Amino acid sequence: MTFKEKLQAGKFLVTSEVGPGKGIQTGKLLEDAELIRSKVDAINVTDLQSSVMRLGSLAVSFLLKQKGFE
């Protein structure tokens, strides 16, 4: 069941927030996402945390979507 379907069905949903690390390395972030996959319904990727330049949230969101996250 997708996030949208669960939401429409009135289910209680659990999300987690992740922040891209500094630089362009995504391995650790994707590993951490795998650790919580079975515990969350979706992941929210923050943008410009603490006004520090980081990898863009859109790029990270794309990578997570490729791995099957919502």
Provide the descriptors you would attach to this structure in a database record:
70 residues, 3 helices, two-stranded parallel sheet, alpha+beta, 37% helix
Overview of the structural elements:
The chain is an alpha+beta fold. It has one domain. Helices cover 37% and strands 11% of the residues. The protein has 3 helices and 2 strands; from the N terminus they run αβαβα. It has a two-stranded parallel ribbon with strand order 1-2. β1, α2 and β2 form a beta-alpha-beta unit. The longest helix has 10 residues. It is elongated, with a radius of gyration of 13 Å. The mean pLDDT is 88.
- Secondary-structure-derived class: alpha+beta
- Work out the strand percent: 5-15%
How many E strands?
2
Share of helical residues? 25-40%
Largest sheet: 2 strands, parallel
The termini sit apart by: 11 Å
Please provide the ordered H/E string of secondary-structure elements. HEHEH
> How large is the count of helical segments?
3
Shape: elongated
Kindly summarize this structure in a few lines.
By secondary structure, this protein is α+β, with helices and mostly antiparallel strands. The chain has helices spanning 3-8, 27-36, 57-66, and strands spanning 15-18, 42-45.
Task: Please describe the topology of this protein.
Layout: H1 3-8, E1 15-18, H2 27-36, E2 42-45, H3 57-66
Parallel strand pairs: 1-2
